[in-house]
Design a protein that fits this description.
single chain; alpha+beta; three-stranded antiparallel beta sheet; 3 strands; 37% helix; Tctex-1-like; dynein intermediate chain binding; Tctex-1-like_sf
């Protein structure tokens, strides 16, 4: 048996002239200036502490109004899952409109049935007590309860 080996033809090799290679490579003298500009821009945008506190009290009142309006006449059903999602989105959108864009908002809404049951909710996080905060609201009617928590974390 004979083995065939593949050999590329000489004409398939690309020829690059020295002139084209020089044009493709940026000069070394511009690289340090570009890096320095990027660092300056980053330092100008970087704010380790917010210049405005998050309006927790106002957001709490807004949260209370949205939840009370939506859930006062509602009875517990499997459709409460979709209601919780929509409620969470509307709370988060309303809070975004009241705050600066540097805050990350996490909204958690839990809706449950009131029928001799107990619920325990916990959460853990690492944050800065100077800039980060949360607000919560607990709603109850004859048929259900809703726990709404909005976590607010400052993005550096």
């Amino acid at each position: 048996m004979m083995r065939e080996t593949f050999k590329p033809a000489a004409s398939t090799k690309k020829r690059i002239s020295k002139r084209t290679a020089k044009e493709e490579t940026p000069s070394l003298s511009t690289r340090p200036q570009q890096a320095e500009d990027v660092v300056k821009e980053h330092l100008m945008l970087h704010q380790p502490v917010s210049d405005q506190r998050f309006p927790s009290g106002l957001v709490h009142l807004l949260m209370k109004h949205l939840v009370d309006e939506r859930l006062t006449a509602m009875e517990y059903s499997p459709a409460c899952s979709a209601v919780a999602t929509k409620l969470s989105d509307s709370i988060k959108d309303a809070a975004k409109s009241l705050s600066s864009g540097r805050y990350k908002l996490i909204c958690h809404v839990a809706i449950g049935q009131l029928r001799n049951s107990a619920v325990s909710c916990t959460s853990r996080s690492i944050w800065s007590a100077d800039t980060d905060t949360f607000t919560e609201y607990l709603f109850k009617n004859q048929h259900l309860f809703a726990l709404c928590v909005l976590f607010v974390v400052y993005q550096e």
